[in-house]
Write a structure and sequence with these properties.
Layout lengths: L7 H5 L8 E4 L9 H10 L4 E4 L11 H5 L3 E6 L6 H8 L4 E4 L2 H13 L3 E4 L13 E4 L2 E7 L5 E9 L5 E2 L8 H6 L4 E8 L19 E4 L18
Amino acid sequence: MKKIRKDAAEALDGLLFDGMTIMAGGFGLCGIPENLILALRDSGVKDLTIISNNAGVDDFGLGLLLHTRQIKKMVSSYVGENKEFERQYLSGELELEFNPQGTLAERCRAGGAGIPAFYTKTGVGTLIAEGKEHKEFNGETYIMETGLVADLSIVKAWKADPEGNLLYRKTARNFNPMMATAGKATVAEVEEIVSLGDLDPDCIHTPGIFVQRLIKGDHEKRVEQRTVRQRENA
């Protein structure tokens, strides 16, 4: 199956529908599938449930979909960099399912592994635990969390080969590998597509069997909050 597509719009063609659930890799603005997010915006698909660590910033990443009101619900662990997210949530325009960050990662990993639920101590005794099953193991209380799956996963990687084998770079790996396994379809955008056999099999993070479509994108490497020390007087 030919996996490489010419652009993000072609890569998403036939996969989108209103009301769908999408997993989007990345952490902050690091390792986000920015070209695929732009194509989602331009497609006009709406009433989306987005599973992602955060919602980007106001003018970049998933924040673009908030401005166009295409997102109905976010399943996230951190949303502190987006004023439009705050406004929509506090006004009741946007649903939010908060997760501890490790729990969110494990829910995605579990979904990709076919594990329907698991128990964790994280969140016991907090609002996170309300309405969830509690169980004791070895005298300790745990809460049950369910695995997550999506209609579509969009991820960003550093390199890929034509079979869709993916290699992530440093912290841009973040949520991408587990989300790549948990979508009914997975589309990856990468910085470089190499020839088959050029990737060391021991270095592949996501096997190509999980990836249905692939594009090479141009990427803007933004910094969310640039903090530098004042230069000392010479």
